């Protein structure tokens, strides 16, 4: 990220990273599956034939409680006929019309798809069975202006298993925190175009990643759920972590944004996208990677998916460059934590959980992904002519009594080596001689003598690149990494070689 910020420091006034939109999901573990649900019904002495009226009674209890809340605070209770209608827009309209500054805004109800229980008849065994499937039921939305989090809402499913969702916005929370400590800012929608003290604002926003969420979520749940239960298990169902690069004005961003989009479309292939999201790029990965470019009214957005998780870039409010990582499935990542392995309590790398206990690790991974994305964009917008980069490495070097030949940056052999080194999978850990040898001279791998000769040739090439300052060796390892100069030189050489000659003539 630092290279990008340095490259465009004359245009940038600040950077802010933190949670944007976060959706928590609460489930009741005791009735989350059919086995647990059947055990609960048995404990309540409810036969399967009586399930419908039993569930309906509890559902009506939840709806009556929601209506009682609106009556208590003199708010509106409205039924939304279509699930496609934006509830947030309806709530915003009511908030404006009724001039609501704090507390409950309204309660909206709508029939929407869900996973729920129903009773089906098994014709073969001639008996009733409890089954969980996709169906529709009534959901109630509770919109609040919270003292701490601003505009937020809770969504409660009114049929078993009574799943609940809590949606908050980290930028709304930050705005209220900055008001309290007296930091001036300009806010548009859910982003800031200017902050008086960006470093202090970042320190405040970082507190959200370390937040102990359980008491807060349980407190919100108790406001809307009247049915007695054994406690919800809370997960971070969706966490959008955004890095906002604040430019001085819209013109400053508009000057380079088309080039950023163009570079992302042309150069961010599957290995790069996997690298951004910290995923393996070898044969062990067999998932789907895809990218999508969309033109919206407010601008152009590019989004990349690695299976269920994504990273995207778009211009927001004219002067904000936003890089946003969304982790929907944390099981694709690892976390160092205590866990039980083979009956023993050990500390090591384990699969990351959806539970709120791992929310700090989720933020750490998302920030790293955003940083890698910006780092990959750091070569865009270099105003220097290409010869200023390529000419110095095209001259013979003499160091420590040794002479090194000049590089030929756009020759087939050199450019091919550059392209292999710049592959996305090498950006995190680096690359080794063996990995380059397998790509550049794959036929030599089948013969030990030829493999040794190929290894020596690659070693000489790497030594040449090291002396020209394009790569560096990682101490006490067999790995190499590309330097800042190497990124600039190799990316320029590759782009120059692959540019359509018609475009060069036009320029």
Total helix count?
A: 16
Ends distance: 30 Å
Secondary-structure-based class equals alpha+beta
The residue fraction in helices comes out at 25-40%
Number of strands: 19
Beta fraction of the residues? Answer: 25-35%
Large-scale geometry: globular
Determine the mean pLDDT: 89
Low-confidence parts: 503-507
Describe this structure in words.
The two termini are 30 Å apart. The chain is of the alpha+beta class. The longest helix is centred in the first third of the chain and has 22 residues, at 51-72. A hairpin with a 6-residue loop joins strand 5 (150-157) and strand 6 (164-169). The strands form 5 sheets. It has an 11-stranded mixed beta sheet with strand order 2-3-4-5-6-1-9-13-12-11-10, with helices on both faces. Among the domains are: 29-161, no CATH class; 386-506, Arc Repressor Mutant, subunit A (Orthogonal Bundle). It is built from 16 helices and 19 strands.
